[in-house]
Amino acid sequence: PSVKASISLYSSSPLSGPEVKINDLSIEYCTGCRWMMRSAWMAQELLTTFQEDLNSVTIIPSRCENGGVFVVRLGDSQVVWDRKIDGGFPEMKKLKQRVRDVVTPEKYLGHSDSKDSSKDPAIDSPKYPAMMSTSMNVRPEPNVSIRYCKNHRSLLRASWFAQDLFAALQNDLNSVTLVPAFQDEKENFVIEAKGGILWDQKSLGRFPDLEELTELVRDGTTSKSDSFQSNKTPDTEDMDDEEAEELRKYFGVI
């Protein structure tokens, strides 16, 4: 049977419907500044260090007109890093400490730990309110979720798929969620959108190539949504390389 015939057998997904918890992390980044690769790398680092502690990491492209957005959140309201407030990008060591302090304070981070094991006071400072006035939608639609097997080191593949989907669909994809599979879900690599499974590596016997995955994601979202570009900022043109470089310089990132 064809791939489309195979995936039509799946009527529901194991990723559908869970409410967002404090150990669901999100990284929102400025698309105009070309910070997608940085965000994907940080997602990999955090999921590697906290593979038993984080439920998921969602990467969210921000297309706001002001630009310069780079925010890391836990749950739907707890900010652990805001580039505009903190004055730049975090060192990975510092970011891991802040995530640890909220999600699993007793966890030892090895060489990424600080000599002073006390909690980072910045987390509880006024600039990081425990509950913000409005909660962030941490999985804005259209969203694609990728559940990968931790034991088979599929995180790099999942991150690669996420980056290629953002590149291929550009303004038409509003978030990708990377989800480490449970320990008993061996050889598991599942991709879903809109509550339905688009690809199950175990059932289909292989991983998708980018072209067919892009087609499946496009079909799987547009067929069940009246507005595929629901979060797209109107009248915003893509930047060319020179404009993106100028914006990065303006915000202090070369």
Question: Could you characterize what this model shows?
Answer:
With 254 residues, this protein is an alpha+beta fold. α5 (155-169) packs across α7 (210-222). The chain is globular and about 50 Å long. The protein contains eight helices and eight strands. It has helices spanning 3-7, 36-49, 83-86, 92-103, 155-169, 201-204, 210-222, 241-250, and strands spanning 24-30, 56-62, 70-74, 78-82, 143-148, 175-180, 189-193, 196-200. The protein has an eight-stranded mixed beta sheet. β3 and β4 form a beta hairpin.
Low-confidence stretches: 4-17, 130-135, 223-237
The largest beta-sheet arranges its strands as: 4-3-1-2-6-5-7-8
C-alpha geometry: globular
- Share of helix, binned: 25-40%
What is the averaged pLDDT score?
A: 78
What's the β-strand tally?
Answer: 8
What descriptors fit this protein?
254 residues; 8-stranded mixed sheet; 30% helix; globular
Write the layout of secondary structure elements.
Layout: H1 3-7, E1 24-30, H2 36-49, E2 56-62, E3 70-74, E4 78-82, H3 83-86, H4 92-103, E5 143-148, H5 155-169, E6 175-180, E7 189-193, E8 196-200, H6 201-204, H7 210-222, H8 241-250
Parallel strand pairs: 1-2, 5-6
Antiparallel strand pairs: 1-3, 2-6, 3-4, 5-7, 7-8
Helix pairs in contact: 2-5, 5-7
